[in-house]
What we know:
Number of helices: 2
Distance between the termini: 37 Å
Number of strands: 8
Number of domains: 2
Order of helices and strands: EEHEHEEEEE
Strand order of the largest sheet: 7-6-5-4-8
Amino acid sequence: MEGVLPEGTELVEARFSGGPLLTLLLDREDGPVDHEFCSRVASVVAPAVEAEGYDGPIEVSSPGIERPLTRPEHFRRFVGHQAKVRIGEPLDGRRNFTGVIERASEDAFILKLSEGAEVELPFGSVTRANLKEDIYK
């Protein structure tokens, strides 16, 4: 599907939301992810997914303020930002962590927790991660 997206557009996440609704979260390098952009992308994506056998509804949207972090490059891009992370297997009895992304390597990232401790989490252990921006700063 990424082959049909306009140049400079990133597919952040594709998921089924509420039954057959396919939601595509997109970001772009050269402008806002506004209604016009989403409509344009939907018109080129719909035929591509229909060709793959999907004929349900499609929603194209911006990743929003609590953008999902789905790839290692997202963690590298958002070093210094706060994130909320859930891992599959507990680490020291915890699965949920909130903190600032300190740094990211090829295999893992360091999260500085609000209580001051740092935790290293391998990308393979993450089941969900989102930016956690404070819009009231």
